[in-house]
Write a structure and sequence with these properties.
alpha/beta; four-stranded parallel β-sheet; 5 helices
Length: 98
């Protein structure tokens, strides 16, 4: 079982792979199957906004509500604005949010 699996586009996956994180470059058409498998294989699942948007309605919400494994949507690389929701979610997953 991988500690972390990142699902996304080739650019995002390449960056995480260079950092030693398991990645799966996934086409939007294959998002649901890749996401389901990542939830089985990983202790934490991260995915790009585009891939999250490609999931069937309600899938992401159900996975996040299940809490095991934790699922977070990464900030969009094309929008360099700080994503406070991601930072807050990551702190909550790590147990450092009061």
């Amino acid at each position: 079982m991988s500690a972390i699996v990142v699902l996304g586009d080739e650019l995002t996956c390449t960056g995480f792979r260079l950092a030693g994180v398991a990645t799966r470059c996934t086409a939007p058409a294959d998002a649901a199957a890749a996401f389901a498998q990542a939830r089985v294989d990983a202790q934490l699942v991260l995915l790009t906004p585009a891939l999250a948007a490609a999931l069937p309605a309600g899938t992401l919400h159900q996975a996040q509500a299940a809490a095991a494994p934790p699922v977070l949507v990464l900030p969009d690389l094309r929008d360099p604005q700080p994503d406070r929701a991601f930072a807050q979610g990551l702190r909550a997953v790590l147990g450092i949010e009061a």
